[in-house]
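Q: What would this complex look like in 3D?
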Amino acid sequence: MIATLRYEFAMQVRRPSLWIVYALVFAVLIVALPFGSLDLNDYEGSVGRQAMSVAAQILVSLLPIVYGCMLADRPSRDRVLRVDGILDATPSGRTARLIGKYAGVCAATAVPFAVAYFGRALLYAVVEGQPSALGWAALTFLASIVPGLVFLGALAFAGPLLLPPMVFRVLFVAYWFWGNLIPAAMMPTLSHTIFSATGEYVRYGIVAPPPRAASGPARRPCSTSCARSRLRSPPGCGSA
Amino acid sequence: MRIDVSGLTKTYKGGARALDGLTLTVPTGMYGLLGSNGAGKTTFMRILAGLLRPTSGRVAIGGHDMATAEGRLAVQRTLGYLPQDLGVYPDLSARRFLDYIALLKGLHSRSARRRRIGELLEVVALSDVADRRLKGFSGGMLRRVGIAQALLADPRLLIVDEPTTGLDPEERIRFRTLLAQLAGDRTVLLSTHIVDDVAQTCRSLAVLAKGRLAFQGTVGDLVSHAYHRVWTVSTPGPAPVTGRVVSALPEGTGMRYRVVAAAPPDPRARPAEPTLEDGYLALMDG
Ligand SMILES: Nc1ncnc2c1ncn2[C@@H]1O[C@H](COP(=O)(O)OP(=O)(O)OP(=O)(O)O)[C@@H](O)[C@H]1O
Ligand SMILES: [Mg+2]
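A: Here is my prediction, written as structure tokens for the whole assembly.
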């Protein structure tokens, strides 16, 4: 399992297309969204904490698409390359190898994501003289981004078992826009709910949402305590 | 490690019956497996390697029952397997690929692994290109990587499915000699279409035809199938119409044919000494 984790990580993290696609989408984010300025919208409170939350919010808008799509060809890769015969004839065990592969490939695919996020955090900490931002960045990444990536990784490993990777990618992108990005006012969606993989709810636990993060009549901005209570009983408090 | 197979049947989804009640004993040493395309050789070897479950029948290897997970694991611990449709990771170097497979085979000591991989790269004559990506390897070079990975954990049982396909003659002869040397107290099961490889290295062999056992015995036994059935015919005219032409060589103004046939195919035919290939063809022709 450890061997598979190591080698799958190494093979994925050295894949040039991984970095190229991430870089392209990242460029779009920089141009189209305030990733450079981290516009805080007149927020009052711990500015470093808020800035890291905004940075996370911007990155999770599009980078998870790259993450899911770059994972999609991995589950079937051994079969496609016809390495499975050799691997299956070793006493290593299929389940152990699958777990190792999942962990290794997901971690490797999250590396450019983490580089972008912590790179921004470092820049912010230096330029604004706020080293605490790094701590907030670590907390936000672990608590709000990683769980989403773990879920998306499982989705990207299960999906291509049923569908060809290209079909899965198309559906995955559709899912991402529908379930995580579009405003709830447009159509029924998972966006801005606890089922959204953007980790938005967890970020509400770290900082209150900026006024425009939650839009649409059904999803008003809510406070930290309200988010917590929603986590406990989703249909309850805060719907008014 | 002795392999005991009884009543082995494999029917694929879709109904193709690749093995049909195969009963066979493979003793320790080098053992050949011949058969035409689609005879079931690969299916048989994949079942032995624990990659495929039979539809029915029993397989025991070195006393381990392959129907149980423990049995398969015990066999795989001492197994070297070279699949017919060998694949590799194109982005790894030969050395790193072998390192990965060695880890999966349980060679945990880094120094032992490094030493073993170095030795095997030497054996398959790939030391010079060991750190190049496999992406740029030729078919024959990839096959040698495959051979090296099969030998990694010093296997007691070697299952090699058409290992010499795509190798140049020198490399082919070197490899089949290596296999024969390894055999000793190990079991080496060699499937091939190159009858000469079996003739040069195996004492015993089996022939599969349509998933059934067509022959089991020594090389001499199979050769004897062709006794009094091999002929040479020198003729300026067309090839003989009866029997199976094995070779055709230009000779003077005509041709010299080698023919396997139950009776002289031509009045001018002279009897010839049979080879294993003749025996195989005689068997197949019934
Ligand atoms: N995955 C599969 N699904 C369905 N049928 C299969 C499959 N693999 C093999 N077969 C069929 O089983 C039969 C035996 O195939 P197998 O590959 O075992 O033969 P072989 O003796 O190795 O042939 P070759 O010499 O061409 O390698 C063939 O008729 C083949 O079409
Ligand atoms: Mg075959």
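A: To summarize the key features: Residues 87-153 of chain B form one domain. Chain B touches chain A through 27 residues (CB under 8 Å).
Q: Very helpful, thank you.
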